């Protein structure tokens, strides 16, 4: 991938992270971590901006230093996944959609739950 593609992808991830901060069922931190990774390949200036940002920086730095997720964030993330799945089930999707989404969310919840707490 070119430097400009990484840069553009970084800004897409920042945008998704900001949307995730507003919408309760969409994650925030993972998109910001991905944005920092994209910027590390394209723009050290924007990577530093993200890492030093007063509310976006701390979770990214924690992840980079310890691969840790605070307990409160774990509970919120897993609770949001469960809530989103319940909403999906209320929409009465086809069985294969419910199973696929359930498996994906279970894998994500397992990943989040097994990271060290901070």
From TrEMBL:
Keyword list (alphabetical) reads: Membrane, Transmembrane, Transmembrane helix
Q: What residue intervals traverse the membrane? A: 6-39, 71-90, 96-114
**Gene Ontology CC terms, in alphabetical order:** plasma membrane
Q: Does the keyword Transmembrane apply?
A: yes
Record's superkingdom? Bacteria
Q: Matching InterPro entries, A to Z?
A: DUF454
Q: What name does the UniProt record give this protein?
A: DUF454 domain-containing protein
Supply the source organism for this entry. Answer: Sphingomonas montanisoli
Q: What is the lineage of its organism?
A: Bacteria, Pseudomonadati, Pseudomonadota, Alphaproteobacteria, Sphingomonadales
């Amino acid at each position: 991938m070119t430097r400009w593609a990484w840069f553009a992808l970084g800004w897409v991830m920042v945008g998704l992270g900001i949307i995730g901060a507003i919408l309760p069922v969409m994650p925030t931190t993972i998109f910001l971590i991905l944005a920092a990774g994209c910027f590390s390949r394209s723009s050290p200036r924007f990577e530093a901006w993200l890492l030093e940002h007063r509310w976006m920086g701390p979770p990214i730095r924690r992840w980079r230093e310890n691969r840790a997720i605070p307990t409160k964030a774990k509970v919120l993330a897993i609770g949001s996944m469960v809530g989103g799945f319940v909403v999906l089930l209320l929409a009465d999707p086809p069985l294969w959609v419910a199973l696929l989404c359930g498996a994906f969310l279970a894998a994500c919840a397992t990943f989040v739950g097994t990271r060290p707490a901070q």
